[in-house]
Amino acid sequence: MNYIDIGVNLTNRSLNKDLDGVIGRAVAAGVQQMVVTGTSIDESAEAIELCHLYPERLVCTAGIHPHHASEWTNDATRMIQAFCENSCVRAIGETGLDFNRNYSTAKDQINAFRQQLELAISLEKPVFTHQRDAHDTFIDILREYRSQLSQVVVHCFTDSRPALLDYLELDCHIGITGWVCDERRGLELQQMVDLIPANRLMVETDSPYLLPRDLPGRPKNRINEPVNLPHIVNSIARHQDKTVAQLADECLTTSQLFFNL
User: Fold this and answer.
1) Calpha distance 191→229 (Å, rounded)
2) 76-83 and 41-53 helices, crossing angle to 10°
3) Which of 53, 84, 113, 138 sits 20 to 30 Å CA-CA off 160?
4) pLDDT of 220
5) 0.90 exceeded by the pTM?
């Protein structure tokens, strides 16, 4: 079975200090390709560099995460446009709203989100989005632009059933992480993951974050890696009452189509 991890933070120091090892372990487990997440101007540039080092294994996104929205400048649009001239950049983002931590003001987050949605429309690129504790504002903005956007994935979905239905109504893709493996926080997600159509479900580790809680032999450093993606797929398959092979094949096809792989 082959897999694509649609959300890997390979620019994070805990992973990029051993890139050969991280990528080698992932490939040995069947994770043939990974999408490196761009979360700022600097990290988007670094993600592109990593893709050039491992062109058969990596593609990336380019954008500004809501945590960094206060860094948005008049030059940001031009710089992200330039990044997108690289064939490895397959989506705009990570962009969206995060009202949980508010590292940037809501005003700055909304501005950066809108600017990146408009950029995605002009470049005809998919959008890789993030939403935490901001669903009402996020969905209102997304509804304004959705008809003009090609494709949208709500990355690392951990929200409620009504939120999931809102996203599916807008024909969004949904990214599921190891959150689904948590018998405490992930219980609601376990109960509704079967609502996601096969052609809208993609899987991701969001490594080095969100180490699956039920992973056998969990590392003491709690660093998550793409090698753990098959474990997440196994969990989703169980909750969808599908074979692992069927779900893996469905997610592979959906991810290939979304990211043009």
Assistant:
1) 20
2) 10
3) 113
4) 87
5) yes
